[in-house]
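Please fill in the sequence for the structure shown.

STRUCTURE ENCODING:
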């Protein structure tokens, strides 16, 4: 079983070997990258990031979630459906929509993933636009020391050394992904009757 310890009314994962992606290439290939996203809406940026993760990790799990720090234009069920269509569009058996991991708070998906994949190394993926917010996320001082944090650079959101240091101060094991998510504002338009996924301009 995964060891846990209580922090207030919440539980922290204690078996860090099960959710850390260590630096050797073999373990990177065997790791599962975890990408929770608001997917409001899914964009070509999401597609670029998922493709980049598939080039680096042996398996990728993604899900749509509610971000407690922002308001969403579409309900979670619709966003999850659109993200699932993007996953299907990429046609890679190593990529899955893991909607059962979804939670507004990062600690919960990490706990669920550790129980779902007890023998795999897990890596949490975020974009550089979110990196500065992480110290304000719920119980970040609890879950940051328990996982490897992979940050995907996004154009227009440069990473400052002060941001990286703040994550390290909370116990974060930070790595920068060697890919860049472009600024492309496009929405998913699912044409059900044609069974095709189209990424069209969104305004």
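FILLED IN BY: designer on duty
SEQUENCE:
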């Amino acid at each position: 079983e995964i060891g846990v310890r209580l922090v207030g009314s919440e539980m922290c994962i204690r078996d860090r070997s099960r959710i850390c992606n260590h630096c050797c290439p073999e373990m990177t290939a065997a790791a599962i990258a975890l990408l929770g996203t608001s997917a409001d809406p899914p964009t070509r940026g999401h597609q670029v990031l998922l493709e980049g993760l598939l080039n680096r990790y042996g398996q990728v799990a993604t899900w749509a979630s509610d971000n407690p720090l922002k308001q969403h234009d579409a309900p979670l069920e619709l966003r999850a459906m659109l993200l699932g269509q993007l996953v299907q569009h990429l046609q890679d058996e190593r990529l899955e929509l893991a909607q059962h991991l979804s939670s507004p708070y990062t600690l919960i998906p990490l706990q669920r993933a550790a129980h779902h994949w007890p023998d795999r190394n897990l890596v949490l993926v975020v974009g550089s636009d979110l990196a500065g917010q992480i110290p304000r996320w719920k119980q970040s001082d609890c879950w940051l020391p328990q996982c490897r944090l992979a940050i995907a650079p996004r154009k227009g959101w440069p990473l400052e050394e002060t941001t990286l240091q703040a994550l390290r101060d909370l116990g974060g094991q930070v790595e920068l992904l060697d890919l860049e998510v472009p600024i492309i504002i496009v929405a998913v338009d699912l044409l059900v009757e044609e069974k095709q996924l189209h990424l069209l301009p969104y305004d």
